[in-house]
Specification:
- The chain is an alpha/beta fold and 248 residues long.
- It folds into 2 domains: 163 residues, P-loop containing nucleotide triphosphate hydrolases (Rossmann fold); 75 residues, no CATH class.
- Helix content is 39%, strand content 25%.
- The protein is built from 10 helices and 10 strands.
- The strands form 2 sheets. It has a 6-stranded mixed β-sheet, with helices on both faces.
- β7, α7 and β8 form a beta-alpha-beta unit.
- α3 crosses α5 and α3 runs parallel beside α6.
- The longest helix has 18 residues.
- The protein is globular and about 45 Å long.
- Bound molecules: adenosine-5'-triphosphate.
- The site of adenosine-5'-triphosphate has 11 residues, from β2 and α1.
- Adenosine-5'-triphosphate binds next to β2 and α1.
């Protein structure tokens, strides 16, 4: 496996008296698909939000390519090549599939680039077309996002996160609410973007089968702490993991 892209060290986040994340450490290596799983309320989203600057950690550090990025704003992390999806769809319903992708690309490149250099495109039209072809959305390219099925919107949402060649993508429940046919398409395309383009990403997901099939490595959280880490097979056989799931 490649060099370390992201390193999370002893991250903690409390909300008043509630400790949502209690000292979690892990890393993400170039070219891998890392899964983060755990029972409801174990701190997965809080962890993502702390890594991506939506929340300021109570303690701990986050390094991107060996640079300390703890507490940087989401827009700054975007400019450094980290993008994400949210549990709730972030597509703009009144914009077409193509326009949504362009907008995501502009956000990833940083609006300053287009402001300073005039062109709002900076190669994004070609990139959007490439992404549309990659995720097999050609027949929907000019459709408004609101006209797409929920599964198609989730696919678009994921495609948007990969616009402009980010260094690292964090996907928050990409499979949530997606029907089986669309799910296998999403899984196959995510696998392909990793294999063919070397995309590195982290997936938070409740769908255990999806995670176990897709991810190269899995981190398991329970009650704000990391309780296991390993290949899908190792994690599945880990008694502590089984206990944490059966106990809920
Ligand atoms: N803004 C907040 N204020 C207070 N408590 C919060 C806040 N956000 C999260 N929490 C609490 O922190 C804990 C972790 O929540 P978090 O949403 O990170 O878990 P999760 O693993 O993502 O859950 P789920 O799988 O249900 O999405 C929970 O006990 C939750 O109630």
């Amino acid at each position: 496996m490649g060099t370390t892209i992201l390193e999370v060290q002893e991250l903690k986040k409390s909300f008043g008296g509630i400790s949502a994340v209690s000292g979690v450490s892990f890393d993400v290596r170039d070219g891998e698909i890392l899964g983060i799983i755990g029972p409801n309320g174990c701190g997965k989203s809080t962890l993502f939000n702390c890594i991506l600057g939506q929340l300021r950690p109570t303690a701990g550090r986050v390094f991107l390519d060996n640079q300390d990025v703890t507490g940087l704003r989401p827009s700054e992390l975007n400019r450094r090549g980290v993008s994400r999806t949210f549990q709730l769809l972030q597509v703009f319903p009144q914009l077409s599939v193509h326009e949504n992708l362009i907008l995501a690309g502009q956000e990833h490149k940083g609006t300053m680039v287009s402001r300073l250099f005039g062109s709002r495109d900076v190669g994004l039209t070609a990139e959007a077309n490439r992404m549309i072809a990659f995720f097999r959305l050609q027949h929907l390219a000019d459709e408004k996002a609101s006209g797409l099925s929920y599964g198609q919107q989730k696919l678009l949402d994921a495609a948007m996160a990969f616009m402009a060649g980010p260094r690292l993508v964090l996907l928050d429940e990409p499979a949530g609410g997606v029907n089986l046919t669309m799910l296998s398409h999403l899984e196959e395309r995510l696998r392909a973007i990793n294999a063919e383009q070397g995309a590195t990403f982290v997936v938070i997901e409740h769908n255990m089968d999806f995670v176990m099939r897709l991810c190269t490595r899995v981190v398991v959280l329970a009650e704000g702490q990391k309780i296991a880490e390993g290949t899908p097979a190792e994690v599945r056989a880990n008694p502590t993991v089984i206990e944490a799931y059966l106990g809920h």
